[in-house]
């Protein structure tokens, strides 16, 4: 038994493959570069049976394969997006190890795994790449609902990957409702919050923030809110807002519902 372990250790030392340097650009801004190269430098003591493979999304999809002395192949999402004649060296056992992508689109965002194997050994490494698209539109709307409440809405369009939105009022993050959808492969997101005007200082900074964490991208919109609108100190009559009517009806509806529920309970028992 022990000699077997020793033998396999010896074999591994003799026939080893080691990825020494993996180079994948972490973040690429869409439209800025015509091409990107994913490289995977390796050392192998014995190149018999050498195969270089690249996988997309955690070894699930084979996207590039090179078995020297054959020509490399691009498959799946990289089909027709790779320059297959690209060489990183003149060495017949390393020249096509890298993937030279000539169509850099956001859909290629993901984790890439390089697997180098020979008959006796194998090594692999994984790196993420994000191709991000900056927003086409970023807006903030301040909407005074009435004397007491201010609605703040932030919207962003055309971003990739998924953005995160936040609203800050006077440096304090607000609890906000968000919705997000995908239109033509880009994210459109909206977030909104309602703040109590009476609790705000006379002048306060309102900030809409957008982050795309995997792209280390941050963008913001800033506006100043003035609590007291000019000339509002007209006293006297208290208008009955149509809202209060709604409140009454919804309250009475609730009362009716609870009466119905309690009578149902009575019937049940
Ligand atoms: C490489 O490995 C193959 C198969 O294991 C073997 O036949 C060959 O002799 C080895 N070559 C060298 C240079 O070690
Ligand atoms: C890479 O994989 C990790 C872990 O599964 C994941 O959190 C990350 O978002 C992936 N990166 C990209 C760019 O998809």
UniProtKB/TrEMBL annotation:
Segment forming the signal sequence: 1-16
Listed Gene3D superfamilies: Immunoglobulins (2.60.40.10)
Keywords in alphabetical order: Signal
Domain Ig-like: 25-130
Domain of life: Eukaryota
Coiled coil segments of this chain: none
Keyword Signal part of the UniProt annotation: yes
InterPro entries on file: Ig-like_dom, Ig-like_dom_sf, Ig-like_fold, Ig_sub
PANTHER family noted in UniProt: BEAT PROTEIN (PTHR21261), GH04238P-RELATED (PTHR21261:SF2)
UniProt name for this protein: Ig-like domain-containing protein
Organism, scientific name: Mythimna separata (Oriental armyworm)
Lineage, broadest ranks: Eukaryota, Metazoa, Ecdysozoa, Arthropoda, Hexapoda
